From TrEMBL:
InterPro entries: LEA_SMP (IPR042971), LEA_SMP_dom (IPR007011). The lineage of its organism: Eukaryota, Viridiplantae, Streptophyta, Embryophyta, Tracheophyta. PANTHER family: LATE EMBRYOGENESIS ABUNDANT PROTEIN 31-RELATED (PTHR31174:SF7), SEED MATURATION FAMILY PROTEIN (PTHR31174). This is SMP domain-containing protein. Belongs to the LEA type SMP family. It comes from Acer negundo (Box elder). Residues 18-73, 136-193, 201-259 form the SMP domain. The keyword Glycoprotein does not apply.
Length: 261
């Protein structure tokens, strides 16, 4: 679960502004937007709220460096703000899981950074059943996705990954009517027929309360993660995982579970 390797910023002397797509793995309109000083300031404030300071080498730092370069080149003003950041905001959110917390940073709903930080956890006793106390289940990983990629419109790669996750969690290849996989497939089909972003069904709507919607659940394992990743990649034209998406969340859960053992 990482923000991906940033591309090299354009040199200021070329009088081409450093854009979000130059430093983060983002897409659509945001990728073509120049990074502006007020964007960086908002992210610094958000990071300070969570971390108590600006994270060294984090998104706020990268944004500040890009904004400074753009300002020195005379391509943006000191108080300029990108319309996407200004209207949709920037955010730093955290999800607590046993022994760790998942921190996600986003601009306009697109993930620009994601970290897993260890936290102290009290010793627990193994529970009776398939899930051991302290382990993160597949359902919990899907619920985490409902926050880390809540505004992402559901597409076929998401639907395939959710179906693979449901199969792994329940141990059944049957798609349950009204279940997560069925809802995701319906959402993906709907989104292919509409054009406006606001009319599309988002991952947050499908995956909120995922654990309650699963007929059964289990701790996420490396094998589960591999199956979900494979499904997402096979159905993505770019053969890439979405940052903070379904596959990335299950991978993170599996890694955390391996560290608990």
């Amino acid at each position: 679960m990482s923000q991906g390797k940033p591309r090299r910023p354009q040199a200021a002397e070329q009088e081409v502004p450093v854009k979000y797509g130059d430093i983060f793995n983002v897409s659509d309109e945001l990728a073509d937007k120049p990074v502006k000083p007020e964007d960086a300031s908002m992210m610094q404030t958000a990071e300070s709220t969570i971390f108590g300071k600006t994270k060294k080498g984090g998104p706020a730092s990268a944004m500040q460096s890009a904004a400074n370069q753009n300002e020195r080149a005379g391509l943006v003003g000191h108080h300029d703000v990108t319309d996407i950041a200004g209207e949709q905001g920037v955010s730093v959110t955290e999800i607590d899981v046993p022994g760790s917390r998942i921190i996600t940073e986003a601009v306009g709903g697109q993930v620009v950074g994601q970290y897993v930080e260890p936290t102290p956890v009290a010793p627990t006793v193994a529970a009776v059943g398939a899930v051991q106390q302290g382990s993160i289940t597949i359902g919990e990983a899907l619920e985490a996705t409902s926050q880390t990629a809540s505004d992402k419109p559901v597409d076929q790669s998401d639907a395939a990954a959710i179906q693979a996750a449901e199969v792994r969690a329940t141990g059944s290849n049957i798609i349950i009517p009204g279940g997560l996989a069925a809802s995701a497939q319906s959402a993906a089909a709907h989104n292919e027929s509409v054009y406006r972003y606001e009319d599309k069904i988002k991952l947050g709507a499908v995956l909120t309360g995922a654990t309650r919607k699963l007929a059964a659940d289990k701790a996420a394992t490396r094998q589960d993660a591999e199956g979900v990743v494979s499904a997402e990649l096979r159905n993505n034209p770019n053969v890439a995982m979405h940052p903070g998406g379904v596959a990335a969340s299950v991978v993170a859960a599996a890694r955390l579970n391996e560290n608990i053992r």
